[in-house]
Amino acid sequence: MDFTLTPEQQMFRDMFRDFAAKEVAKVADQADKQEALPPKLLKRAAAQGFLGAVAPEEPYGGAGLDTISYTLLLQALAGECASTALTIHVHNSLALRTILRQGSPALKEALVPEMVTGERLGAFALTEAGAGSDPTRLRTVAAQVDGGWTISGAKTWVSNGGLAGVYIVFALTDPPAGARGMTAFAVPAETPGLTVGGRQKTLGLRGANITRLYLEDCRVPAENLLGAPGQGYRIALETLDFGRIGVSAIAVGGAEHALEVAARYASERVQFGAPIAQKQAIQAYLADAATQLAAAECLMRRAAWLVDQGKPVTREAAMAKLFCSRMAADVTDQAVQIHGGIGFMQDYPVERYYRDARALELVEGTTQIQQVIIAEDMLAGYGIKVKP
Ligand SMILES: Cc1cc2nc3c(=O)[nH]c(=O)nc-3n(C[C@H](O)[C@H](O)[C@H](O)COP(=O)(O)OP(=O)(O)OC[C@H]3O[C@@H](n4cnc5c(N)ncnc54)[C@H](O)[C@@H]3O)c2cc1C
After folding, report:
1. Domain 122-229 sits in which CATH superfamily?
2. Could you read off the pLDDT of 203-234 as tens digits, one per residue?
3. Which stretches does DSSP call E strand in the chain?
């Protein structure tokens, strides 16, 4: 594994950082306080091709980024605003990529061009009130009708809810079969019977639109089926493998920024007649944070590299997500500590980074679920079948 970026990847990274500095930084605080991203921001991101990041150039006009470049995009966006990064990540990693991989030709033709230009944002609706870590407990059901399916149920924690023009919805088509009876559908937002709840109030990621979603006899044509009936659980797991690499990149981007701000503050803030950066306790904080960050970035990059090599990534993506999200929670916590009292004030952005990072240990499988995935893979070699 060679983590040196190619000249093209370096060019992309510079372009992503430039966009983040010029367009994202100025709206990040406002997005957090107003609990919404300015619509212009997504339009500008779309104009740069970021909403088609994972779609191939031909035939869809996407950016066709490799996975390493894609992580550079999310890392750069999260360096200024994790809510912006999450919105673009959910659209690309969880919705657009799933339609590209699992959609029928007719579905792709209908939806992908509009998703690539950002006219139709994507969302992913798996979680329900009674089905979080254990998605096999879904209560949303879908029944086959003439020429299509009707879907009924209620989803929660839908990132991009209300903004999205299409929802990837998981439902049981054969309830007694449990996970093997789960099926995935692309449900356009304009489908009669689909309604979106209000924004769920959250500790962090306040600029991201996270809502409930209700489906009442929502009828979709047969071509909106993703994969085949009964493949929904496998599709969800496969999608989340990739998604976790995106979450890892968001964690690394946010922590990187928080650490930079903390190091600058420590160099400027004078107490006891010298910058606090002269104190060994502060140096130890900074050194530990920099080391955790470097290790996290390696795990994240390794998982992205494996995807680009076409190799299995379940265990490595879970490791990256486990380590990167914990690292981000720790490093942003240390950044608050280095700032002393002002680290706790809303006038300074460091508290936003801390609140945003906390969500990353929950989203797309909690820390404990990543541990289950890793242990399951490890212990299979010893004849142990791990049950979550
Ligand atoms: C900011 C944010 C955005 C989200 N966006 C989306 C989205 O776009 N789409 C979507 O479908 N979902 C989304 N989610 C939902 C997320 O995937 C779930 O919150 C997560 O899977 C956990 O489910 P839960 O909240 O029901 O917790 P629970 O499953 O009830 O877990 C509660 C606690 O029990 C622990 N636990 C559960 N099972 C085990 C076990 N076997 N072993 C050890 N510990 C266990 C968990 O780790 C956790 O600590 C989002 C969540 C957040 C916070």
Report:
1. Butyryl-CoA Dehydrogenase, subunit A, domain 2 (2.40.110.10)
2. 999 999 999 999 999 999 999 999 999 999 99
3. 121-125, 141-145, 148-159, 164-172, 182-188, 194-199, 210-221, 225-226, 270-271, 274-275
